[in-house]
Amino acid sequence: MIETRPRPVSEEVSSSDPVRLSSVVKRFTDAKGEQFTAVDGIDLNIRRGEIVAFLGPNGAGKTTTIDMLLGLTRPDEGSVRLFGGEPRQAVRSGQVAAVLQTGGLLPDLTVEATVRMLGSLHRGADVDAVLTRAGLDELRGRRVAECSGGEQQRLRFALALLSGPELLVLDEPTAGMDVVARRDFWATVREDTERGMTVMFATHYMEEADRFADRVVMIDRGRVVVDGSVSDVRSALSGRTVSARISERSAAALAESPLVRSCTPRGGRYHFDTTDSDALLRLLIEQTSAADIEVTPRSLEEAFMTLTHQNRTEGDNR
Amino acid sequence: MSAASAIREERTSPFSGVNSVFIGYELRRRFNRQTTIFTLLLPAVLYLALFRTAPDGATLPHGNFAAWMMTGIAVYGAATAAVSSAATISVEKASGWMRTMALSPLAPPGYLLVKVLSSVVMAAVPVAVVGVLGVFTGVEATATVWVTSLLVAWLGSAVFAALGITLGLALKPDTVMHMPGLTMTALAFLGNLFIPLSGTMLEISRYSPMFGVSTLARYSLTEGYAFSGEHSSLAMAVVNTVAWFAAFSFMAVRRFRKSTGRN
């Protein structure tokens, strides 16, 4: 089915972009009756053919944003347009499909019955082709309750393919999967996106964003904190930590160096966050009496935490 | 783009997506052991146990006591079959299937329509079974009575299709297995279906959900008279049926709105 659909043009910027979120705000009232803002003014445009990773710590507002995007929740302020129209319309018509995090499947049905049942709702859906594309051929007769998490996720993916969507939204599709299942899942998705589908996926895993997306949008506390190409974000976030026993004065002097992004004393040592650990090591050895020097790669998670933390402090100071 | 859009536009009517394949799977999911017992076996056994239990001197204008019992059991069976949607709905709610449905072309009215349609199909089964048993156990009635009683018993199940949706949305999957069957059996006793009621019991019965449908179904047989001589008017029976149908539908729609989406 998908092959016969006209394919998107990525340069085109228009009101019919797959996703246009304008100043979207959503507030919830918790059990104590206190209001909190889950999404605090998000602007986001996604053009045709883009693959966008949507990152953020737990509770950052990813799922709420996705729910609004799919028309499952109405925003309190701002507007959500999919392909220039109402989200519900685009979702029901199958132009937009979603793979939700958990649930959404009937445990007593078999894999094939699930796909056939939902396939019957979309005119012209090719159930057999979809089963093959999602790698479910061998699992056709298995009951959903007996499928592993990864298998169930492939089934959700298959269901999303039934309508031949132009935009696919995945909400943490690999949460709780092991490494192998995750890799398999992304291989399957990648194959399909090569046909030109626009994809937006929420994830915890930086490495997934890194390998799979063209563009990264990070949110924290309901706001966009980073929006850029994967390579930009990666270089902004990459780096190493150099730590050493060193006098306070030398540490202060080093912290002035453009090589050092930040310097924190911890456990009798100074930890320097740097973009160029080699140059910093030379400085340390040549110009200071630093001892017990250690160099550790900065994990992306760590970088991400720093970044969102920075943003928080800046935001609080404002 | 335009061709694809045109097709997409076309299939977004409120009931788009309702189709025989989907209803087929829906029915297959409903015919589990539990519903088979309650919708086939139990009505048959009850009928065979009760069709000869006529009160002394019972006479009916257009048939015999077996016809009266056949109609009552048909109403009971149809109602129980219709309410069996509760089990599937409860599982659907617990498993997040509602969200999947909310994202499908099956817009909320379509989802409810599938539930009601499959309930009506299910309800035909016990009506047919009891009807066949009636033929072999000496039901005597005019042709009009045969047709109207079984037809009303069947279509009256729509009232309980709405109740099934409400129960399904309200109950957890582990309680929903037994609750609807037991509720329906209790309502059937209360609704004058199994044992001819009279006096105060009949007075109470008039307000219960199954009384309206059963009185309508039996009207061509009894002309509204109980064996004890009390009369129930056709208008009263219609009001009872419509009122309960409205009440159950209202509850179903309200619960359904609450259960889809998080807003």
TrEMBL record, chain A:
A UniProt-annotated Pfam family: ABC_tran
> InterPro entries of this UniProt entry?
AAA+_ATPase (IPR003593), ABC_transporter-like_ATP-bd (IPR003439), ABC_transporter-like_CS (IPR017871), ABC_transporter_ATP-binding (IPR050763), P-loop_NTPase (IPR027417)
GO annotation, biological process = response to antibiotic
Q: Which GO terms describe its cellular component?
A: plasma membrane
Q: Where in the cell is it found?
A: Cell membrane
Primary site of residence: membrane
Give the membrane topology.
Answer: Peripheral membrane protein
Q: What is this protein called?
A: ABC transporter ATP-binding protein
Q: Which source organism does the UniProt entry give? A: Streptomyces sp. NBC_00148
UniProtKB/TrEMBL annotation, chain B:
Q: Which organism is it from?
A: Streptomyces sp. gb1(2016)
Annotated transmembrane regions: 37-54, 66-91, 112-139, 145-170, 182-202, 234-253
Top-level taxonomic group: Bacteria
Q: Name one GO cellular component term.
A: ATP-binding cassette (ABC) transporter complex
- Membrane topology type, per the record? Multi-pass membrane protein
Q: Which GO terms describe its biological process?
A: response to antibiotic
| One Gene Ontology molecular-function label | ABC-type transporter activity
Intracellular or extracellular location(s): Membrane
Cite the source lineage: Bacteria, Bacillati, Actinomycetota, Actinomycetes, Kitasatosporales
What are the ABC-2 type transporter transmembrane domain coordinates in residue numbering? 28-199
- Is Membrane tagged as a keyword? yes
Instruction: Quote the Pfam families the UniProt record gives.
Output: ABC2_membrane
Question: Which keywords does this Swiss-Prot/TrEMBL entry list?
Answer: Antibiotic resistance, Membrane, Transmembrane, Transmembrane helix
Coarsely, its chief localization is membrane
Q: What is this protein called?
A: ABC transporter permease
